[in-house]
Specification:
Blueprint: H1 14-21, E1 28-29, H2 41-49, H3 63-77, E2 86-90, H4 93-102, E3 110-113, H5 120-127, E4 131-134, E5 145-151, H6 163-176, E6 179-183, H7 206-209, E7 216-221, H8 223-226, E8 233-238, H9 240-253, H10 259-270, H11 273-295, E9 299-301, E10 308-312, H12 317-325, E11 329-330, E12 332-333, E13 345-348, H13 353-366
Parallel strand pairs: 1-11, 3-4, 3-5, 5-6, 6-7
Antiparallel strand pairs: 2-8, 7-8, 9-10, 10-13, 12-13
Helix pairs in contact: 1-12, 2-10, 3-10, 4-5, 11-13
């Protein structure tokens, strides 16, 4: 029997992309957060040096990679982990989509995720026919909850959850006997103080979890901080018992991160210079775009971290998408991310400097055209 899966949202953008492409000077595509800058040379060199990968790689990751992941959490987040607390993944999306299945969830179970949310959380519930619930308030999570997804910094809205908010969410999940996972892929891309000079809080922080990781996981990706989206380089950390169960399934299904990618991840995790350089690029682009959108009459909500601006003209999201497409700029409607985004659009910072400048110039030329 076929699964009742949601439509792939980006297919709906096709007519707006066509309109934006027809604009004189071509499209400025700010709809998808895919890196446009080069992968750091030090990482590419590590990948090249490891290309004699004739044997099967380890699903659990090489000892060097697991140690590098644990060391990164200790250095950047103050979290003490051992190799048993970490596991590499083939990008973060496959883990997010698959976790409900690997946990054995099904009809009658509930998967909770943010009200403005990356669509893959809901997809994971659909794959196992579990109930999906968008709810930010932990008090509203039902007793049937078995898996909770948090996302901080948030995609699409750039919202950052405080230590207090994370602690309350973990306490409620533990009360329900649910596994709770923090999707933290934008942690190194904070813009508002105090996160402009350090990472945003992790769900594994001792102030959140106490002296135990029981039922708590953190997911992280190198796609954003290191321009490794094409490498599919990510990892999960936290409750060793949950990860052991996940690892057993991944061994059976052959979900092995390629060995050259594992070696590249080690180097990427150990080199922080390129991360700060990339953050500086995004900061410059963000400043240009934010100023241009605000001068064109938009309001920017949240957006304190991450790769996006959460923008609104206080009109239906698709009306804003159309208005921008007519000016050669393509963005994602907030409706892709749930009902909470009905009057917002998500504007990605992932375009080259010249295309960002083109978008700013077009917005300046347009001025504010209320409702049209």
């Amino acid at each position: 029997m076929a699964l009742d899966l949601p439509d792939f949202p980006w297919d709906q953008l096709a007519p707006y992309k066509q309109r934006a492409t027809a604009y004189e000077g071509g499209i400025v595509d700010l709809s998808v957060g895919s890196p446009v800058d080069p992968t750091p040379e030090v990482v590419r060199r590590a990948l090249a040096d490891a290309t004699d990968a004739h044997a099967y790689p380890q699903v659990a990751g090489t000892p060097a990679l697991r140690e590098a992941i644990a060391a990164w959490y200790g250095r950047r987040q103050g979290v003490r982990l051992t190799a048993d607390h970490v596991l590499p993944t083939i990008g973060s999306k496959e883990f997010i989509a698959g976790l409900a299945l690997w946990m054995g969830l099904g009809p009658g179970d509930t998967v909770v995720f943010p009200e403005a949310a990356y669509p893959t959380y809901e997809l994971g519930a659909a794959l196992v026919r579990a109930d999906a619930m968008a709810a930010d308030d932990p008090a509203s999570w039902p007793t049937s909850t078995k898996l909770v997804w948090l996302n901080s910094p948030g995609n699409p809205d750039g919202r950052v959850l405080s230590i207090e908010q994370l602690r309350a969410a973990v306490a409620r999940a533990r009360e329900l006997g649910a596994v709770i996972v923090g999707d933290e892929c934008y942690a190194e891309l904070g813009w508002d103080a105090p996160y402009d000079s350090g990472p945003t809080p992790t769900i594994l922080d001792p102030r959140v979890v106490g002296d135990s990781f029981d039922g708590v996981l953190s997911v992280y990706s190198l796609s954003k901080q290191s321009n490794l989206a094409g490498y599919r380089a990510a990892f999960v950390a936290g409750d060793a018992a949950v990860l052991a169960d996940v690892l057993a399934i991944r061994k059976h299904t052959g979900m092995m991160p390629p060995l050259p990618v594992q070696q590249a991840m080690v180097v990427a995790l150990e080199d922080e210079t390129h991360v700060q350089q990339q953050k500086a690029r995004y900061r410059t682009r963000r400043n240009v775009l934010r100023t241009a959108f605000e001068r064109a009459g938009f309001r920017i909500d949240a957006s304190g971290a991450g790769l996006y601006l959460w923008a609104t003209r206080d009109e239906p999201a698709l009306d804003t998408v159309a208005w921008l497409a007519d000016r050669g700029i393509l963005v994602a409607p907030g409706t892709f991310y749930g009902a909470a985004g009905a009057r917002h659009v998500r504007v990605a910072l992932t375009a080259t400097d010249d295309r960002i400048a083109a978008a700013a110039q077009r917005l300046a030329s347009a001025g504010r055209v209320a409702g049209g």
